[in-house]
Specification:
alpha+beta; Nucleotidyltransferase, domain 5; five-stranded mixed β-sheet; xylose metabolism; nucleotide-binding; carbohydrate metabolism
């Protein structure tokens, strides 16, 4: 039997999945690694941890599935986007990577937008300078760690480091490269103009590939560590959002995906390059060769729910866990006992600043409208509703550009909850479906590997592999009531912006 291996290098863990040539998942396996937060707002990881964990996950997956390395005929990679891996001329790691959720580069983003100009930067790259993106991190390194900057010879994104260890080849796909702020997204090539304006060496950037291009073959040493066969072809793959969209079949116009991971993303496919006039949406290359996509990114979607679980719901939760229950399922059931709108309570999900629609590292979260009747159930529901309203903000920007949507495909950990899926259908006003692939980005990476190795069209493979398994329709009455809450929600950020900034400054003042 032949299998394709999809690897998704996430923020908390690497997930590997084996898929057969008909698109059926044989088995999956995850291995976690630590997230370092040496200062408030910083987020780093050791690239060596990624590689060690990936090799261990592949080995364990093959054993679990009783599949031999020789049966794996192609490998694809997906990964957390934007993270900067700095390598020296011997391809050794210079310092820990700065991740997508790291917020230290606010000053560098301002400098970039002044140096290039927001409109010119948008014309050249399709995007604004946002704290998570890669180029501001390179400038941060130049400003704050010149000794590390002087040693740097190559810059990669997280999953590209893993591909380098597997194959010995430097490379980056267009989809992930779009989040560096150094790609001319419209023309799918590095922007020498932006690199020159920022004084960044273009030679640090690796060769570019489409997501289903074969970049290299598994090396002997990597084969020994992973259990894969030497010479197995490895495709470029893509950023986790592009791979996740491929994994749920968002490879044509009319279907949007909503990813409920740590971040939250509303994603649409574009046949031609499109950019938001004010660059509030990210305009990126898609994992489908020669195609593009736009997305709005909320930094703490599932992340807000996870924060709520970790800090304000610990007592019963220990019991739930001890009885083998799922803590998130317990919390969504609790939320369901509170009425729609949480009896006049709104939650702002800007716990780690925000990207879309408010590119603001100093935005902060909050509960607004508390009264004496509110219980933990109301607050839990308000958290889920606030995240959903925040995602609707991205959808508003997408539909305002003239895109017509007929269906939402939900993926990520939050998609497990039927209650949350119904809430999304009611708040967005579109049918919400889930598909047979629950492994999202890893499944998309396996599909891209199959496309590259078998020389099959990505969209055709999506049609063959991906099937809708569940559908919820918006409830008109609930939709009308949510609309009233959403109108209040969207008025809060402009009204509170200065207050949130003051609080953000006070939090770090000594
Ligand atoms: N049963 C569930 N119901 C609702 N939300 C859930 C459930 N399980 C997980 N989640 C949410 O999904 C998030 C994790 O999603 P995942 O796609 O695994 O994220 P990542 O890839 O960023 O690590 C959690 O933080 C939580 O908010
Ligand atoms: O920054 C982005 C997209 O622009 C994030 O989507 C990261 O790529 C990681 O997301 P999770 O999968 O961990 O939520």
């Amino acid at each position: 039997m032949s299998y394709f291996l999809g690897i998704d290098l996430g923020t908390s863990a690497v997930k590997c999945v084996l898929v057969d040539s008909a698109g059926t998942v044989k088995a999956s396996h995850s291995v976690e690694y630590p997230l370092l937060q040496p200062e408030p707002g910083w987020a780093e990881q050791h690239p060596e941890d990624w590689w060690r964990s990936t090799a261990a996950a592949i080995r364990a997956l093959l054993a679990k599935a009783s599949v031999s390395g020789g049966e794996v005929v192609g490998v694809g990679l997906s990964g957390q986007m934007h993270g900067s891996v700095f390598l020296d001329s011997d391809r050794k790691v210079v310092r820990p990577a700065l991740l997508w959720c790291d917020q230290r580069t606010a000053a560098e983003c301002e400098w970039i937008e002044q140096a290039v100009g927001i409109t010119e930067l948008g014309r050249l790259t399709g995007n604004r300078a946002l704290t998570g993106f890669t180029a501001p991190k390179l400038i941060w390194l130049r400003n704050h760690e010149p000794h590390h900057y002087a040693r740097t010879a190559h810059v990669l994104l997280p999953k590209d480091y893993v591909r380098l260890q597997l194959t010995g080849e430097l490379g980056m796909d267009m989809a992930d490269a779009s989040g560096t702020l150094l790609l001319d997204v419209a023309n799918r090539s590095w922007s020498s103009e932006v690199a020159r304006a920022l004084g960044l060496p273009l030679e640090w950037l690796p060769p570019l590939y489409e997501s289903n291009d074969v970049v290299g073959q598994v090396l002997d040493g990597a084969a020994e560590l992973t259990g894969l066969a030497p010479g197995t072809p490895v495709v470029a793959g893509g950023g986790d959002q592009a791979c996740g969209a491929v994994g749920v079949g968002v490879v044509q116009q009319g279907i949007a995906s909503v990813a409920l991971g740590t971040s939250g993303v509303v994603f649409v496919h574009d046949d031609t390059y499109q950019a938001d006039t004010e660059f509030r949406l990210h305009s990126f290359c898609h994992g489908v060769p020669g195609k593009w996509h736009r997305m709005g990114v909320m930094l703490a979607a599932g992340g807000s729910f996870q924060w709520w679980k970790n800090h304000f719901a610990s007592d019963e939760l220990q019991q739930v866990e001890a009885n083998g229950g799922d803590v998130y399922s317990y919390l969504t059931a609790l939320a369901e006992t509170a009425p729609l709108g949480s009896e006049g309570l709104l939650f702002l999900p800007y716990l780690t600043g925000e990207r879309t629609p408010h590119p603001d590292p100093k935005a902060r979260g909050g509960f607004i409208g508390l009264n004496m009747r509110h219980t933990r159930a109301h607050l839990t529901r308000a958290v889920l509703e606030g995240i959903t309203f925040g995602l609707r903000d991205s959808m508003e920007l997408i539909t305002a550009s003239g895109v017509e949507i007929r269906e939402l495909r939900v993926n990520g950990g939050g998609a497990r909850s039927l209650f949350w899926r119904q809430m999304i259908a009611d708040v967005f006003g579109y049918p919400v479906v889930t598909v047979n692939s629950t492994d999202g980005p890893a499944y998309g990476a396996a599909l891209l590997a199959a496309s590259g190795v078998l020389q099959r069209d990505v969209s055709v493979l999506c049609q063959e592999w991906i099937k809708v398994v569940h559908r919820v329709e918006p409830d008109k009455n609930q939709q009308r009531r949510y609309e009233q809450y959403y109108e209040v929600y969207r008025s809060l950020y402009p009204a509170l912006r200065c207050t949130l900034h003051q609080l953000s400054d006070l939090a770090v003042s000594k």
